[in-house]
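pipeline stage [seq->struct] | target=3-hydroxyacyl-[acyl-carrier-protein] dehydratase | organism=Blautia obeum | residues=142
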Amino acid sequence: MNRLGVKEIEQILPHRHPFLLVDYIEDYEPGKFAIGYKCVTFREDFFKGHFPQEPVMPGVLMVEALAQTGAVAILSLEENKGKIAYFGGIKNCRFRGKVVPGDKLRLETTIIKCKGPVGVGHAVASVDGKVVVDAELTFMIG
């Protein structure tokens, strides 16, 4: 297993707090897949307004966390080191559950297609084995 802490993730991704949404990578294979985690706490900045009476992690941030996890897989390739992965599209995205403070969000993105600087990843986020988001994410390496 290839485990990465936040400092190692920061060497691969350009994101920083508060927008770095992956706390650690449990395992990855460059160009193939990455499995990461976001430990969701009540102190997340977005909970101040989404929603104060019932804190729920915004769906777009769950998708972003999945994209960052996939970016670890694609940007850890030697030829992509130091580059940025940009969103190219989101297909077949489905939100299937809420993510709330105290949840440990499991993020898994598998690269299913890559041609030149463009690729596609299949992304699934889950909490305690229950899928909360799944999507197909298109990326461009720049």
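stage status: PASS
auto-comment: The beta strands are 24-29, 33-39, 85-95, 104-115, 118-127, 130-141. The chain has a mean pLDDT of 97.
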